[in-house]
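Q: Convert this sequence to structure tokens.
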Amino acid sequence: MIISLKKFGNSTGVIIPKSLLSEIGAEAGDSFDMRIEDGKIIIQKERRHPREGWAEAAAAIAAAGDDKLVWPEFGNDGDDDLTW
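A:
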């Protein structure tokens, strides 16, 4: 695919077609890693750990007191026999 460089203010960029973004599971607003390898510009979707930020989010929910059971009356059979 042949593309042209475009002027964006004081910067220069390229417009990445939606079809190419779809191939890598990316969309506008996603974070990317960009580097030069062997004279080529490599743009790669940033890979984050799937649970990144969960601990902080759980702490914020607990601090807000919003960590109660959603359906506390619906337990499992045998829950009363469990030892923790």
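The chain has one domain: 1-73.
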